[in-house]
């Protein structure tokens, strides 16, 4: 028998070695910065050392240095690196699915109508919304796999059977429609499996984690259309779906950062559709678009133009770069950026920069919903005024999306517990949800009640002034404040 020659091509071992080498060259330039942070922390000469452990302080500083490179990489390279799938191992079930495209275009027409109806004074002149294609939307059903070990791999069975095995371990009807963060141009459900697995475990339910389209290739409202398609797919399963219909009272929208923005944008879209009395024709049937049980957003990115003063005031605690001029995106040119036709923002066209379905803090009303949000104090104040039941938790000295970044920190465990508790309660006993506003102190985790009247010093007029000035648009409001 002739000796078999190894197949040509790149092996898994080669890919792994290449990834390790790339990681080494990424980490190497950061070593002096890390050493400085460690010394200042040990000597208690840095303010973060009063609130963060050494490990957490190093992680935050390291991420900050990575994001604040003097020579940024092309957008396409950064995006591609963030989309790498680390593989599926451990105590997790993942069933990969894709929704079919409906034969009707009704869902897109309804979304465009909602966008047009809600634009108000925030869209310049007669700006027309992009009309994205309706495409199959991929997602990952995620559940907790109790009997597995940290090194367990998924069995080599069809996706439908993986879904069935996952469902055997669900102890509740909770279904989380999850949207990952990543500034609308990075990350993937694969990068957020630790988060979705943890939420599934704590709620006893399951997570439908959506692979929505990313900018700059697919700007607003592509991701929002994918989110709406995903919600309808849960409510009214398309042909070939592995799941049965899910009642809206068992669905909670959730997400972190840009995913928090998308979860709230989807909610506001549903509210607008209902205000307009619209229905969606979906696979041959006229369907209602009901409200979900609630929304649970973690560090939601509400102000996409970064106009609020907190973007600079809280800089020392975070790893996010300082806001820069919207026309000054310095990444090197590549195949996907600058966009054609040109625009200032990676995610959205210039005319729609302040549309309330992108800048969520500019929405006029949130009446009729329950929400749990972890960052934007002004939105919480607005929600309370609109009569919405809100559970607000603020974590002292913690950076953006800290629960996912600092997985082993005690603050992260507390955050996940509060996050999951709200989700479960919104589905099981929504009438028992009482609004609460709490600061969780660093290290001690002591809970301190917040007077909701003191949450935000800003008025709606202030927010509009900040936003108009930020995008360089002439405001109809007098006495526009100076830049902060």
Automatic annotation (TrEMBL):
Keywords carried by this UniProt record: Hydrolase
InterPro entries tied to this protein: AB_hydrolase_3, AB_hydrolase_fold, GDXG_lipolytic_enzyme, Lipase_GDXG_HIS_AS
Keyword Membrane attributed: no
Source organism, top-level taxon: Eukaryota
Signal peptide: none
Keyword Lipoprotein appears in the UniProt entry: no
Gene3D superfamilies for this protein: alpha/beta hydrolase (3.40.50.1820)
Alpha/beta hydrolase fold-3 domain span: 176-403
A Pfam family of this chain: Abhydrolase_3
Recorded family membership: Belongs to the 'GDXG' lipolytic enzyme family.
The protein, known as: Alpha/beta hydrolase fold-3 domain-containing protein
Organism (species): Apiospora phragmitis
Source lineage: Eukaryota, Fungi, Dikarya, Ascomycota, Pezizomycotina
């Amino acid at each position: 028998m002739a000796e078999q020659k190894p197949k040509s091509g790149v092996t898994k071992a080669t890919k792994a070695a290449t990834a390790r080498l790339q990681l080494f060259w990424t980490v190497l330039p950061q070593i002096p910065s890390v050493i400085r942070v460690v010394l200042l922390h040990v000597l208690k000469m840095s303010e973060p050392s009063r609130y963060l452990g050494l490990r957490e302080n190093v992680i935050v500083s390291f991420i900050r240095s990575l994001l604040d490179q003097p020579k940024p990489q092309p957008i396409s390279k950064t995006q591609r690196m963030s989309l790498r799938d680390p593989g599926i191992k451990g105590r997790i079930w993942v069933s990969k699915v894709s929704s079919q495209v409906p034969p009707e275009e009704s869902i897109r027409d309804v979304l465009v109508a909602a966008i047009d109806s809600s634009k108000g004074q925030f869209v310049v002149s007669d700006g027309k919304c992009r009309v994205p294609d309706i495409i199959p939307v991929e997602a990952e059903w995620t559940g907790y796999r109790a009997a597995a070990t940290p090194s367990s791999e998924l069995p080599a069975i069809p996706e439908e059977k993986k879904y069935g095995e996952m469902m055997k371990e669900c102890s509740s009807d909770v279904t989380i429609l999850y949207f990952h963060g990543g500034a609308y141009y990075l990350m993937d459900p694969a990068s957020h499996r630790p988060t979705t697995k943890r939420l599934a475990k704590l709620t006893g339910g399951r997570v439908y984690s959506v692979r929505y389209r990313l900018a700059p290739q697919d700007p607003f409202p592509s991701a929002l259309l994918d989110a709406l398609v995903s919600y309808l797919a849960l409510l009214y399963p398309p042909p070939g779906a592995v799941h049965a219909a899910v009642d809206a009272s068992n669905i909670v929208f959730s997400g972190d950062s840009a995913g928090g923005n998308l979860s709230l944008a989807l909610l506001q879209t549903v509210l607008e559709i209902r205000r307009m009395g619209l229905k969606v024709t979906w696979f041959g049937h006229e369907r209602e678009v009901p409200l979900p049980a609630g929304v649970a957003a973690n560090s939601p990115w509400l102000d996409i133009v970064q106009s609020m003063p907190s973007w600079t005031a809280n800089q020392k605690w975070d790893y996010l770069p300082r806001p820069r001029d919207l026309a000054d995106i310095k990444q090197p040119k590549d195949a996907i950026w600058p966009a054609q036709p040109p625009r200032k923002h990676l995610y959205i066209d210039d005319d729609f920069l302040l549309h309330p379905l992108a800048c969520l803090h500019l929405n006029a009303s949130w009446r009729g919903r329950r929400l749990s949000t972890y960052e934007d104090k002004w939105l919480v104040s607005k929600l309370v005024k609109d009569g919405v039941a809100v559970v607000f938790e603020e974590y002292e000295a913690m950076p953006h999306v800290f629960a996912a970044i600092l997985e082993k920190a005690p603050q992260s465990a507390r955050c996940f517990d509060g996050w999951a508790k709200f989700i479960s309660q919104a589905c099981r006993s929504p009438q028992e949800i009482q609004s609460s506003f709490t600061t969780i102190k660093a290290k001690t985790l002591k809970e301190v009640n917040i007077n909701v009247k003191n949450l935000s010093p800003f008025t709606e007029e202030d927010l509009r002034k900040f936003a108009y000035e930020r995008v360089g648009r002439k405001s109809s409001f007098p006495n526009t404040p100076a830049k902060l």
